[in-house]
Structure prediction request, 298 residues.
Amino acid sequence: MPKPMEPFTTTAPPRDLAPPAAPKPLAALLGRGRALVMGILNVTPDSFSDGGQFLDPGRAVAHAEEMAAQGADILDIGAESTRPYGGMRPVTADDELERLKPVLPAVVKLGLPVSIDSLKADVVAWALDNGATIANDVWGLQGDPAMASVVAARGAPVIAMHNRTEVDPAIDIVADVAAFFSRSIQIASAAGIARENIVLDPGIGFGKTPEQSIVTLAHTAAFKAFGLPLLIGASRKRFINSVSPAPPDQRIGGSLASHLYVVRQGAAIVRVHDVAETVQALRVMASIELAAIEKTAT
Prediction:
């Protein structure tokens, strides 16, 4: 760095210089100009798709390394299964932290943004204080009453997901999701969370019948009316089985179809188990679309 011609006589910054802007990890990610891939890392014994596979810390970190090498943009770590189809076994914050402490710091060292998937403000606070940069709340700031203040105090982005305590096949699910998002945004604003730090997730599979999940996906573009980035997590979800029966680990075709569709509808992030396949599918689709544009322009 070149030396100034005349040194300052005080350690205070000059009055005409503004303090450095705080880093904006979400804006930097979204500025890449393409859909982002969030890789799922479940350090749980009972997740619906891969429960138990990565409970061992060594295997968990190795899987995170694999997803990073495959092209994941974000790594999402959860230590409590939220099991969208019932059978969830709640765990304490201490249980979650016991699973996270051997894993999260090592994953943070990989250099990718890390999101913490937890219902509990105490767990999210610990994770954000130890290198995670994004909070992923499956109750959209409407569960743990301390969640919004924890996120706001750290200036972190938050993913606010739609959820319901009970499935109701009779409701207009698109309207229900929209109303839920409005409440989440109000809670975030009241807590001091910057609007630019909010991502909306319509919660595919959560509090919805398979048919309602499909309808929600079909109306992804409607949620763009909020003017906020959308995250969609359709990976291996049960609605795929309702269309083309298959166990969770054999639903990659349905997962890819869903994620390609929502990206074309404006989704900014897709949350997936199968990172390599999703990255490949998105790159090929982008290449085909670019060729179509170039052909039209000639």
The chain has eleven helices and eight strands.
